[in-house]
Amino acid sequence: MGQRRRRKGDGGLYQATVHAHGGEYRYWMADWLDEDGKRHRASGATPEEALARKNQRIHTARPAARKTRTRRPAGPTVEQAAELWLAADQSLGETSRRKYLSNLKLHVFPYVGSLPIKRLTVAAVSKITELQRTHGIGESAAWHTWKTLHTMLAWAVRTRLISENPLDFMDAPKRTNHRAEHIDRFIDAHTTTALGITAWAADESSPIHKYYPLIMAMSLGLRRAEALGLTRDALDLGGFSLTIRARLTQRPGGGGRILPPIRHQERAQPGRSPSYALLQGMMQAYHQHQSDAAVLPIEDAGGVKVGEGQLLLVRDDGSPIPLQRLEFVLAAHPAGLQGPYRRQAHAA
Predict the structure, then answer these.
(1) Which of 166, 209, 292, 325 lies at a C-alpha separation of 20 to 30 Å from 144?
(2) Percentage helix, strand, coil, to 5, in the chain?
(3) Across the 348 residues of the chain, what is the mean pLDDT of every consecutive 10-residue run?
(4) What is the distance between the alpha carbons of residues 194 and 160, in angstroms, rounded to a whole number?
(5) Which residues fall within 8 angstroms of residue 125, CB to CB, at 6 or more apart?
(6) What end-to-end distance do the CA atoms of the chain give, in Å?
């Protein structure tokens, strides 16, 4: 018959028989499992001796080293990635940074701000849009938020924070462009108004004639900050051309106005009559304030001064023209409007 089965309570203690050298030997075995599941045995002539050796080996054995699983870092969260993007993208102006951060804080961070950006999938973005609709986000806010997030994720792809932009596989939210609809409806009236103001400013007897170069510059497509940031060296008297190199802006945090360079310079040369009229007006402004026009520092994106520029278009005392809209021009002398220009100027 075989070896008897251990009774309940015997645990790892049992008797074993060994046949060796023509004889039969019987002894007691005590076995156990360590923390890693490995079996060990201790033997003795009596049960007490086997158990004593077992306990001694258990207490003296060095604890087995636990295997730890190394986890790869998940990388920055969506909120942390947004902060990195806004700090790293030097092409963004201060106003754009504040607007983008506001969009993300209101409509993205509450839902996925703590999620690692690598886990921002199409399904996760779809869930964001569902929650936005649940909380009553408007068409315009949803569209601007989507564009902001798309721009941020495109930067994350370029910097290899993520391998692909999930918004590339999705359609942007629909929105109604009420401003475009308004312009389409009243484009003829707007055109007539703009031409009327330009003609009124071109008249030397007009109270706003001194702003004629500025009005012409903006009517030909220059942004307000670009037109006000034109410097005297931007006008090439010999080649009769104008190069747009900088824009007028307020230093972040206050501290006066500066002229940050623009990324892509543009040149205006005489060709069509509007450009010719613009350059003529610039020539007049050039000779009018040669000595008293304000000089502003030219600073790069890091706030380092790289030069100076003397403004081309200034007020009567040579100081910079305010950055606000040109309504101040029309409001200054509303009674000076005559004939058909009165209605157009007030409509503007």
Answers:
(1) 325
(2) 45, 20, 35
(3) 47 74 76 80 81 81 59 82 88 84 92 91 89 86 90 92 92 80 80 82 84 80 84 82 84 80 65 65 81 87 85 87 59 40 39
(4) 48
(5) 149, 166, 167, 170
(6) 113
